[in-house]
Amino acid sequence: MALASKVKGGLGIGSLYSLNHTLIQKWQWRFFKNPGALWVQVITTIHDHPEDTSYFFNHVRDQGVWGKIVGSINSMHEKGIPHSTLKRKVNNGLSTKFWTQTWIGNDSIQHQFSSLFRLAMHQDRMIHDWWNNAWSWEWSRPFTGGTLANHLHSLRSLLDNISLNDDDDV
Fold first, then answer.
1. Which domain holds residue 118?
2. Mean of the per-residue pLDDT values for the chain?
3. How far apart are CA 7 and CA 165, in angstroms?
4. Which of 23, 16, 32 is nearest to 72 (CA)?
5. Has residue 64 got a pLDDT over 80?
6. In this structure, what are the phi and psi dihedrals at residue 130, rounded to the nearest 5 degrees?
7. pTM (predicted TM-score)
8. GO: which molecular function terms (predicted)?
9. Overall domain count for the chain
């Protein structure tokens, strides 16, 4: 009766399956939007959450409530709603990790440019830390040409239209 339209005497809710998945997506969004929230810190501590969201969603094996939420998110991924559709919107860059969080493209920069990531100093820094009105890099060793130089050129091209502002990241 709850699913029936209001005209037919129901509540007009529609599909409980769709409503449930919408609410789960909302939880997923809140999880990444509010990393400092107590409930998020508890979950990340219990499940040893890395910054790589695709790893996290593919490796939670808990049978509890959180495991069921992650299972449902993975179910949506299998039905064509990929994890990569959830990414951060960078504004001031103070709460988004440059290398490990998905914020540009469909994957983290760590995965898009793994050879550069291996040479990067301070791999856990925020985007803001790498920006000083231009991108400033710190590498563990110098490189002048070859594949690494090509990857750096591709990364710079990807970042060409990025600029930071005073608003918080979301």
1. 89-170
2. 80
3. 49
4. 23
5. no
6. -95, -5
7. 0.63
8. RNA-directed DNA polymerase activity
9. 2
